[in-house]
Amino acid sequence: MSASVLFDAPGPKTARRHRLYSLVAAAAITGVLAWCIWRLHDAGQLAYAKWEPFVTPDYVRVLLVDGLLETLKMAVFAILAAVVFGTALGLAKLSDHAFVRWPAAAVVEFFRATPVLLLMIFIWYALGIANDASSFRAVVIALMLYNGAVLAEVLRAGINAVPKGQSEAAYAIGMRKTQVMSSILIPQAVKIMFPAIISQCIVALKDTALGFAIAAPGLMAIAKQIYLDPQFNNRVPTMFVVAALYISVNLLLMALAAWLQKKYVGEKKLVVPMVGAGDTAKAA
After folding, report:
1. 5 pLDDT exceeds 80?
2. 69-93 and 134-161 are packed helices; what angle lies between their axes, rounded to 10 degrees?
3. How far apart are the first and last CA of the chain?
4. Which of 121, 119, 117 is nearest to 206 (CA)?
């Protein structure tokens, strides 16, 4: 038998009240959505002519291939580089040597405190704005620096969250620090920080949209070409479609993360024993 220890199970009156709250909230949300649709219709934003590009094969192909694919490429390169960069910085912050630890801490705090858009702009100018590929690289490098700095703190916190007895036992049997880190601490820390890593991947994917400010390729660049076409002049529908694509990819990423966590990390369930079976709840 399983039960929650956070709050008591609601009684009949509370359950009816919760159902009433749910109905009121659903009605309010439905009303807001209906009002938004009516306003869009009243402004002519639901006319077929404004949505025509998104049912035209050529425009769909450009949006998915030149837009979504480029966005995913920037996100993947940035995330992979951020994991490597963040791991190096996180381990450096845990170093026993001050001349390694303090510079790593300064780098982490600097890039965590700098807005991603400013990083993109500075790197874009540094790489040369006349170069066609500089905006793509600027987005990747900026996202690598920012997300790597955040992941460094996540790694440090994850390793520090592992019970000290684990490392003490490893040192007691003669293992060196590198062995303790690679064999004992990091594998356990990954399980602790896995949700934070996935959240940062989603942040990196969404932040690729900031590349719009430096003429980077991707969804926003293709969207601009569509809504600036005088034939369509459909800024609002285009933003809806682009938002739907971002949301869809993020939902797929979250589903993949949930599957990976269940498969490789596992999940804990609270089991409350029957009366007389003991006084302690066990985590299975």
Report:
1. no
2. 40
3. 13
4. 117
| Dist CA 247 CA 241 (whole Å) | 10
Name the nearest CA neighbour of 238 among 250, 249, 228.
Answer: 228
Q: What is the DSSP letter of 283?
A: E
Tens-digit pLDDT profile for residues 56-108: 888 889 888 889 999 999 999 999 999 999 999 998 998 888 899 999 999 99
Q: What residues pair up with 282 in beta bridges, in sequence order?
A: 271
Strands (E), the chain: 270-271, 282-283
Q: Which of 202, 96, 203, 196 is nearest to 155 (CA)?
A: 196
Q: How far apart are CA 27 and CA 33, in angstroms?
A: 10
HSE (CB half, 13 Å, CA atoms) of 202?
18
CA angle 227, 231, 233 (to 5 degrees): 35
Tokens of 250: 């993020």
Q: Residue 70: how many CA atoms within 13 Å on its side-chain side?
A: 23
**197's tokens:** 């890593």
209 Cβ contact partners less than 8 Å away, ≥ 6 residues apart: 71, 218, 219, 220, 246
283 φ, ψ to 5°? Answer: -90, 120
Kind and range of the H or E element at 226? helix 219-227
- Contact between 134 and 217 under an 8 Å Cβ cutoff? The reply is no
Q: Which amino acid is at 110?
A: F
For 19-60, the pLDDT digits (tens) are: 999 999 999 999 999 999 999 889 888 888 889 888 888 888
Pairing type for strands 270-271 and 282-283 reads antiparallel
Mean pLDDT, range 151-169, rounded to an integer: 86
Total-model pTM: 0.80
